[in-house]
Design goal:
575 residues; 4-stranded antiparallel β-sheet; 36 strands; elongated
Length: 575
């Protein structure tokens, strides 16, 4: 906006007063047209678990239109042009679900062709898009399964883990006791992209149960490859049967880096293994090993957990079960820094503990990684439930920055469904219960294996992979199942079933947790020698839209607007 003052002098018998004029620059519409547009948009949604939506709303955000491409071609008529335009406009979608609405925005690209009269080549164009009709439908994502088969004589995929550097699948396969042979057990590493085997590592002696437990991800030898921790709880040491050992093998080629032998008979050392992170400040990852059938201080099968230096194999400290028969150390999981001292802490499962007189209700103990001191306990509240049979973690759900603890109680009988199983999520900081999933069918034993599935539901909550290896499927006894469950709503999103009787699908489950990984989660079915590699595909949204675009040619013009007269003495006006 420009302002100027124009003053006049006497030109006749009447004084003409001075006055003020305002000059305003504005856009004048020189020509316009409207275009009817019909477009169909299809795109992938960034979340899962939308099978139960009711309807979808769509609107355009105000003033979100912008021209991203413009091309003008002259015609045979003066000042008339064929104009090709690409517009970007932001659409807001609301997917209405019983568990809560999910909102998101998406930038849509809308092409159009018009013929316009443009008096000057430098004239501006203005485009307004008005939605007249929008019909959206959603195709829910699905679970895609790739099935890998192992060799005979082993319990292929009895245990499993992911290596993150480079991404690969680690499968533990102890000997199959029903098959005669001299197998020690083995660990096989598969490519995350092609699912082809990369290398194998084998146990030392027949019936070592090498591969009974595995964990992967930490680089022990500094070569840039995540190394693999393997338990062999069936190994003997001299006359000490089932004493057990653990071995760390290279994630590059399977060569042995470190081995720790146990000497207590029947302790089943190596039943559970877990990388603990650096506990002693030497910048080398340390090791957790469970021996749930150890008998410390004469307490038969009370169980023990051993914490070792990854650098030297030296014992840092030992933790023992409180009571005979607790099976302390049956499951292990590093939790991250729970107590805020900068050192990772960890959880130990004792599924046969009897807290407060509840027979084999089970317990979970959370310990300081730095000192081994007890931080808190989680007590089972149902007799014979076996809380602590399996332990994993899920991303932070309550906003405190600490991952939450996922725990299975496979012999729980919720609402009278005998041994249907239960799975809980507890706060990683203080053990408060955040979530409970009750197994839907008696006898399935949901929770024998638990893991995050590596994906989130539409509300941002982690999706869980819960193993139920005792489930029947279409009259196939113990075929097994894996339930994919929303930790937000508790809804079952998908079910993967074993392919034959005694397959025991869901005996082991694990998640990659890697962005860009082809694989989301794995499910072991050792009874049929199979590994199911699972991937959840995103939902797709398709929208048919009828729009009207108003295209206007604008030209800048100046308009003079007289102001109110301002009288003053003519003698004061300087000529």
């Amino acid at each position: 906006m420009r302002k100027s003052k124009f003053l006049t002098v006497r030109t006749g018998p009447v004084d003409i007063p001075p006055y003020e004029v305002t000059c305003v620059s504005t856009d004048l519409v020189r020509s316009s047209c409207y275009v009817k547009i019909q477009e169909k948009f299809t795109f992938e949604l960034p979340f899962f678990g939308l099978q139960h939506y009711t309807h979808i709303s769509c609107s355009f955000l105000p003033n979100s239109e912008k021209i991203i491409f413009l091309n003008k071609q002259p015609t045979s008529q003066p000042h008339v042009y064929r104009v090709y335009i690409k517009m970007a406009v932001t659409a807001a979608f609301i997917i209405h679900c019983p568990s809560g609405d999910q909102q998101f925005t998406k930038e849509l690209i809308i092409p159009m062709r018009v013929v316009l009269t443009i008096p000057q080549r430098e004239a501006d164009l203005d485009v307004r898009i008005i939605p007249c009709y929008c019909n959206c439908c959603l195709t829910p994502g699905e679970t895609r399964i790739t099935r890998l088969r192992g060799e005979k004589g082993i319990q292929f995929a009895f245990s499993g883990a992911f290596n993150n550097n480079p991404p690969s699948i680690v499968i533990g396969s102890p000997p199959d006791p029903s098959v005669a042979g001299e197998t020690a057990g083995e660990v096989t590493v598969f490519s995350d992209q092609t699912y082809r085997p990369l290398f194998k590592a084998s146990g030392s002696k027949p019936n070592d149960d090498f591969g009974f437990a595995v964990d992967a991800g930490y680089d022990l030898d500094g070569d840039g490859w995540g190394d693999i921790l393997v338990g062999a709880p069936g190994a003997s040491k001299g006359s000490a049967r089932w004493a057990g050992y653990i071995r760390i093998v290279s994630g590059f080629d399977g060569s042995k880096l470190l081995e720790i032998q146990h000497t207590e008979a029947e302790a089943q050392f190596g039943w559970s293994v877990n990388w603990a992170g650096d506990l002693n400040g030497d910048n080398v990852p340390d090791i957790l090993v469970g021996a749930p059938l150890a008998s410390p201080g004469g307490k038969i099968n009370a169980g023990s957990v051993f914490v070792y230096s990854g650098a030297s194999g030296r014992l840092l400290y030992r933790l023992d079960g409180w009571n005979a028969g607790d099976a302390f150390g049956y499951a292990l999981k590093s939790l991250g820094d729970v107590d805020g001292d900068g050192i990772p802490d960890f959880a130990v499962g004792a599924p046969f503990a009897s807290p407060d007189g509840l027979y084999q209700a089970g317990m979970v103990y959370v310990y300081s990684g730095a000192t081994g001191s007890l931080i808190y306990t989680i007590k089972g509240v149902e007799k014979n439930a076996g809380l602590g049979f399996s332990i994993s973690t899920v991303p932070d759900m309550n906003g405190d920055g600490i991952p939450e603890t996922l725990v299975g109680a496979p012999d729980s009988s919720p609402s009278g469904r005998k041994e249907a199983g239960s799975v809980y999520i507890f706060s990683g900081v203080d053990g408060r219960k955040l979530f409970h999933f009750a197994g839907p069918v008696s006898g399935e034993e949901v929770g024998m294996a638990v893991s995050s599935a590596g994906y989130t539901d539409h509300d941002g909550s982690p999706i869980l992979a819960l193993g139920a290896p005792s489930a029947f499927s279409a009259n196939k006894r113990f075929a097994g199942k894996v339930y994919l469950v929303s930790s937000g709503s508790g809804q079952i999103l998908s079910v993967v079933e074993g392919d034959n009787s005694w397959a025991q699908c869901g005996w082991s489950v694990a998640s990659s947790g890697l962005q860009g990984s082809r694989t989301g989660f794995i499910m072991g079915a050792p009874g049929s020698g199979a590994l199911d590699v699972g991937q959840m595909t995103s939902a797709h949204l398709s929208c048919e839209m009828k729009l009207v675009a108003i295209v206007s040619v604008l030209q800048k013009v100046d308009i003079l607007i007289p102001g109110a007269a301002c009288y003053q003495d003519i003698s004061e006006i300087a000529l």
